[in-house]
Design brief:
With 200 residues, the protein is of the alpha/beta class. It contains six helices and eight strands. Helices cover 33% and strands 26% of the residues. Strand 6, helix 6 (161-176) and strand 7 form a beta-alpha-beta unit.
């Protein structure tokens, strides 16, 4: 299990324009970090860099001594702002695909379905779901295939107050089990978290 996330003197550019430089973060088991900053400051880019989807200009991203490629394959979940769901698929098929892809099993998928209360949505095509329902389906991946580090981009934005509270409870459970969370936010997280403000 990944024991830490360590970021040292990181610099990232987009389209030849520097987003930030000299960024540092140390996160241990059971800890969360809230990424803040104005739109376009680089919050999403940082999440993608941690996940290995975006190259960095300078600096280092390490995973507590674990091999970086291995950690990214087996220890990280990234749930982006756009959810990444195929509109023509049923909710059941989409969740089943992501569960298999990320190493979950039918039992963990079934538990996630109940925890996110999406059983009645399973036979519907993604295009027929509301924004909040789509987000709950995307978040179900986190429980269907448990992994140590959750990278979340605006996870609360389409959720109503009830589901914000419930997902906050899930995040708390994840931290208590030794997991870690890095979330790009505009709204405060419903869990204790260190704040990292990203400025150009």
């Amino acid at each position: 299990m990944m024991s830490a996330l360590e970021i040292k003197e990181l610099a990232i550019s987009r389209g030849g324009r520097p987003l930030f430089q000299g960024l540092n973060l140390n996160l241990g088991a059971g800890q969360a970090c809230a990424l803040t900053g104005r739109n376009g400051s680089g919050k999403t880019s940082l999440l993608r860099a941690i996940a290995g989807l975006l190259s960095v200009d300078t600096g280092e991203i390490a995973f507590g001594g674990q091999d970086s490629d291995q950690a990214r394959r087996t220890e990280i979940h990234l749930v982006g702002h756009a959810d990444g769901l195929k509109s023509g698929q049923t909710a059941r098929d989409e969740l089943a695909f992501w569960t298999r892809w990320t190493g979950g099993n039918p039992s963990s998928m079934d538990s996630a379905i109940d925890r996110l209360d999406i059983r009645r949505l399973l036979d519907l095509e993604i295009r027929r779901l509301s924004a909040g329902q789509k987000r709950r389906l995307a978040l179900a991946r986190l429980l269907a295939a448990p992994r140590t580090l959750w990278l979340l981009d605006e996870p609360l934005s389409p959720l109503d107050s009830v589901w914000r509270t419930r997902f906050g409870e899930m995040m708390g459970d994840h931290l208590r089990s030794g997991g870690m969370i890095v979330a790009a936010i505009h709204d405060p997280l419903p869990i204790p978290a260190q704040v990292l403000e990203i400025n150009p």
